[in-house]
Structure formats: C-alpha cells, structure tokens
Design brief:
The protein is of the alpha+beta class. 24% of the residues lie in helices and 24% in strands. The strands form six sheets. It has an eight-stranded mixed beta sheet. The radius of gyration is 23 Å and the shape is globular.
Length: 512
C-alpha cells in the first residue's frame, strides 16, 4: 500500500482534503509585461536514487529557467512521504540562496521539479507545479510539460462524476485519471490514465516509491534520461543534465513509459504507434543552444537556419546583428554564409525578468528598452541585416526598428529564422490566437511596410526542416501551416493567464 503522506515542507501535518496547501515566497504585486512574443512552455526534472535529490533538482531547474519564469517548485519523497514547496517567480525567488533550509526540508532520494510558464490556466499560485495529492491508494505528485486539447471535456466529465478540482491547469486532469484507475501497479495506472488524453505531454510522476516518466505518442515535447553514479535523472533538456555532471543516456522515446525504482529501470510502450511530430519550435526558440533535443544540437540547427536564410534571402549590407538571445546562433550562421561581419548591435540587460513595473507613456517603448539597448557606435550609418527568431503580432518588432532608426541606422534588412506564424499552438507553446498573428492577415510586403524596414524575408518551411537534418514529416508544423497532428475539439480554447496587472496580494504566502 502506498503511504498517504503528502506534507508541507517543514511541517508534520498530514493533508485531509487531498490537495496540498501551498507554501510560497514571492515579491511584488502589480506587474506588467509585453506578450508580443512566443513564450516558453515548461521544464521538468526528476531524480531517483540520490541522497541529495532535491538539491540536484534545484540545480536542474536553474538550467531549465528559460522554459518558464512564472513559477517553480520541487516535491521530494522520503520513506514514501511526499514533501512539496512551490512559489511564484524564478527559481532564485522560490529557493533563495539565503534560505538553504527550504531545500533541507525536502529530504529523500526521489524528487521532481518544474518551472512554469502558463499556457493553460492562470498564473496563480495554485497552478504552480509539481501538483501533489493524497488519494485512496496513497499519494502522488506530477510535473507536466505540454498541453492537452481535450482537457476541458475530460474535466467536465470528471466533475459530473463528483471529482473536485483545486487548480485551473489542464495538468490536474492527469491526477484524477490516475487516481481512478483500477490497475494494480502505479505505473500501469499512469499509462491507463494517458489513454484518455489527447495532446502534448512529457511527464514525471512519483508515488514516493517509483518515478515514472512518459512522452506522448507523437513526441511533441523533449525528455532525456541521464545517469549520475547509481542515480537516474530525467530532464527536459541536456543542459540540465550537464549542470549536475550527469551522463546522457538517451531520450525517452515517443509513447514510452519509463519506470524507475530502486531495483532498476523498466520501459514499456502501451500506446498504439502514431507518426512522430516533435515540436520544431524547440529548435527555433524554446531550447537552450547548448542542449540536444530530438537527437540534434540546437546550436548547430540554429546556425544552419542562418546559413539557409542567407542563401535564400541575401542582402547588401555592412554587418549582421541579432535580436538576442535566441537569434544569436542564427545571425552567426547568416554572417558566416554571407561573408558579412557579425556585430553585437544590441546589448541585453540580463538583470531584468519577464515582468516589470511599467512607467507612464512619457518613456517611449520602455518595455523593449529595459531589455535591449542599441550599441550606437556599432550601427550608426550602417546598412544592417537584423535577424530575429519570429514575428508574432509585430508590435515589438516595430519598436525595435524605431530604436535602430533613432540611432541612425541607414538600412534595415529584416530576416526571420522561421516561416510566417499563421496559427496558434495547441500543444504547449503560448502563442496568440490566429486573428492576432500579423502573418495571418498581412502579406510579407504588407508586414515590411508596417515595420518600415528596407526588406523583409522569412525562412521557408523547407529551409527550416532541412536545417534539422531530419525528415520534415517528423515535426509538428501547425503554427506555420494550420494543419494540426491531432483532432482539435471545437470548444477547445486555452485559458491563458492575463499578462498585465496581475494582483497576487490575495494568494496564500509565507515569508521566512
């Protein structure tokens, strides 16, 4: 029998309502941020068999911070008891260096962690993962990267059967489906639950005795297995394995269920095989360039994107520059192929987060300028090739162009490393609805005129897929084509969080 002991970190009280009350530490109450960009998704991490599992998870989450900055959390397991600590903000906010005891409270040789950017459900504390519950057969915790397209329908069905939901994230559906499964083994309950869902998921789940990791049958989201001595590690990207000196073993395969226990590793594939549809935006924007995902180096793919772009859309210019940071490798590839020099035309402020208190309109384009500032001496009077990863609504790109014009740039030739985005993502990347995407209702020439650039060119779909070195039919290209790999229910609409003036003052919080 699984032990029923999900606890608050640092407290001994057992839960009685099946949902853990959250301990949190956060800063600020009213924030603002631009949402004219492709946003990250989430990052997951898991360890089994190491006495400092929570500390390793904490380090792994630091390496995955780029995948989500709205919340972070860790659940650890000691003698079958689960302890949970989550909070709003960056990993350094939730687990500040001056409060080491937070990690010390998360004892045990099993831990899972999560960094969150909300694509479904609001950015409130109750939605921060890992989620943890007590249920009839014990306790469990879960961290999810991806998005379910049939979550609303499943939730409605479960609620009609008397299930009570605590959060608004689609990830909570997994917990209810696992809890009601009648399979004998915990890992079989997980697999059974996943037969009911449609969409994208890479999961790590633990009951305090085992650690189960799963990728959906299409393999939308990445997930790696690593080894650290006798311990096993799961991570969304290899950069998170590197930080703890774990050896890369292999990627979890699409549709594979990997079960870790103290007796070793077991793997099985319970789902009917379907075509692989890995998210190609991992290469364009999401993944860190020092990672390997879907069998390919992100750094090398992005440089090849730049080379392909230079061949397809050359420009007479004096230098190539990037909109940092995801476009840096693409701009280098463009420069190498074109023979033009590369320069750091923008200086990025690395000490500002995703959200910030915005002043009045007397400071023009503040939201862009607080993060990027042109290096005037490098670009004044020059003809430049400006490389960016994507254009979403176009408003941020327009502000960037205005900043460059004010610095005396002579010509701007704008090059985009992916094709025009015409459709929203339903599988875990936060994009606006199609009507808000500039490429869905403007031609390339119209966008060029709107941005007031001298020329504009996007990557072709062939140029994008060929840069990966893998067959094009192995990727999800729905954001560029509108053709989705799974059925999309008519009622499906991601409940994305509001991005402005979020007031967390009424959320439960403790400050040490």
């Amino acid at each position: 029998m699984y032990k029923t002991a999900v606890r608050r970190a640092g407290e001994s009280a057992f839960l009685t309502d099946g949902i853990l009350n959250i301990l949190a530490w956060e800063r600020g109450i009213v924030m603002a941020a631009s949402d004219d960009q492709i946003h990250e998704e989430c990052g997951i991490f898991g360890v089994l068999g190491h006495p400092e599992a929570a500390t390793l998870t904490y380090l792994g989450l630091y390496s995955l911070q780029h995948r989500g900055q709205e919340g972070a959390g860790i659940v650890s397991a000691h003698d079958g008891d689960l302890r949970r600590f989550v909070g709003v903000g960056h990993v350094s906010d939730v687990f500040p260096t001056g409060k080491r005891h937070r990690l010390e409270q998360l004892q045990g040789d099993i831990a899972i962690g999560h960094v969150r950017y909300s694509t479904f459900g609001s950015s409130t504390l109750k939605n921060v993962q890992p989620l943890a519950v007590d249920y009839a057969r014990g306790s469990m915790a879960l961290a999810h990267n991806g998005n379910l397209v049939n979550a609303a329908r499943l939730r409605e069905d479960l609620e009609s059967q008397g299930h009570l939901f605590h959060a608004t994230t689609d990830s909570e559906v997994f917990l209810h489906l696992i809890a009601r499964s009648q399979k004998e083994r915990f890992s079989d309950c997980v697999a059974d639950a996943l037969t009911h869902v449609i969409g994208a998921y890479s999961l790590v789940v633990t009951n305090g005795e085992e650690l189960v990791a799963v990728r959906d049958p299409h393999g939308f989201r990445p997930l790696w297995i690593g080894r650290l001595g006798g311990a096993y590690v799961f991570a969304s990207e290899t950069c998170a394995l590197d930080i703890i000196d774990a050896d890369w073993e292999r990627e979890v395969e699409p549709g594979e269920v990997v079960v870790l226990s103290r007796s070793g590793l077991e793997s099985f594939k319970p789902f009917a095989p379907v075509a692989s549809k890995s998210c190609i935006f991992e290469f364009v924007y999401v993944a860190r360039p020092d990672s390997v995902v879907f069998g390919r180096s992100v750094d090398q793919v992005r440089k090849q994107l730049g080379r392909n772009l230079a061949k397809a859309a050359p420009a007479e210019a004096d230098l190539v520059m990037a909109v940092p940071d995801s476009s840096n490798q693409v701009a280098l590839g463009y420069a190498h192929e074109s023979g033009l020099p590369f320069d750091m035309g923008f200086i990025r402020n690395h000490y500002v987060g995703r959200t910030f208190i915005e002043p009045d309109q007397n400071i023009r384009d503040f939201g862009v300028k607080i993060k990027l500032n042109p290096a005037r001496a490098a670009i004044e009077g020059k003809r430049i090739v400006l490389v960016d990863d994507s254009i979403v609504r176009g408003t941020t790109s327009k502000k960037i162009i205005k900043m460059l014009r004010r610095c005396g740039v002579k010509e701007i030739h704008f090059r985009i490393s992916c094709p025009p985005i015409i459709s929203g993502c339903h599988y875990g990347i936060d994009t606006p609805e199609s009507a808000q995407l500039i490429s869905s209702h403007m031609s390339v020439d119209e966008i060029r005129d709107f941005l007031e650039v001298d020329s504009l060119a996007f990557q072709t779909i062939e140029g994008l897929t060929s840069a990966t070195g893998s067959p094009a039919d192995g990727f999800c290209l729905a954001c560029f084509t509108g053709n989705y790999p799974t059925p999309i229910p008519a009622e499906f609409k991601p409940k994305r969080s509001p991005r402005r003036h979020r007031d967390h003052s009424n959320e439960p919080a403790t400050r040490d």
